[in-house]
Target: GNAT family N-acetyltransferase/peptidase C39 family protein
Amino acid sequence: MSERRFRCAQAEDIERLLEIEALCFTSDRLSRRSFQRWIKGENCIFLVLEWDQVVYGYGLVLLHKGTRLARLYSIALHPEARGQGHASALMLALEVAAVEEDRLFMRLEVAKQNLAAVQLYQRLGYRVFGEFLDYYEDHSDALRMQKRIRYPERVREESFVPWYGQHTAFTCGPASLMMVMAAIEPATVLNQSLELDLWREATTIFMTSGHGGCHPLGLALAAKRRGFAAEVMMSQTDPLFVEGVRSAHKKEVLNLVHEQFLERSQAQAIPIRCEAVSVAEIESQLKYGAFVLVMISSYRLNGDKAPHWVVVTAFDELCFYLHDPDTDKLTISELDCQYIPVAKEDFAKMINYGRSRFSVALFIRQSDTHSVNECTVASL
Model:
């Protein structure tokens, strides 16, 4: 076989890449601008397959900030180079590069009717874990596949949690609570009406700008009203997010809302533990059957300096796995937002927000009478 090598894509490769793209795809093609952007991109791996000093294919992998997840965004091989082992070699080269970037998992989407590609990924160790209907421009369906690329599979503690994406920039809390409600009670209908109802019940009214996010006690009260048991763990019981608001009137409203939520939570006998949230506590709650909502600083995920609610769905020796309801980012798909692997040491940093290092988590169970955690039962 002639010499085959892999190298980083360069600007002078673009014409050849566009030619390969046109030969391989009838829709969902990457444009010249896209190739230019990814060649300059930082959070990606963009390799070309060079054979006899001619480019015959490429693979593009996205590296999602703050996680141990890599996602195969696009891969293409010139028809003349097929059937010679190049595709497998390219995939393995991408996996090696992702491991060097400290990623644990590779995920991808593939057209369901593309049996050759599906079989290739299966031979390489990828397993189907979901499906997207009407995913591509031609309305065909996609399979979702995943492979652990750094370590052998380890025992994982997890419960099935359906994923739901928020419809507004300020409803991550309601969306996260809805996922948990549907995990506990599968008959729960997940729609925007419920999302907005929960937001109206739990909102802080104001944030630093725009609409207010959801107060942890407001979310706990909303869960309680719907028959679920809720426990709140927070590092402080002082009013939240006031330091980021300049207006004296807004500060006054935030203080009043906080006091109302605190009084109503106490009246409803919702347990409130004034302690910093820890990795060990989250693990313990998951082991004892609780569903866990955590407020994180989204900076480590997407660069935004904002509090953001997510659901912890599982954990193993290395990682927590998150459902993130927010897909409102370029190149982010539903696949990228489910069971996101985040190393425990990274997650420990995410759960501290702001200068005060505020941390908060909600532990949700089926009902007050079905609580598994004896300490929670006693405090009720």
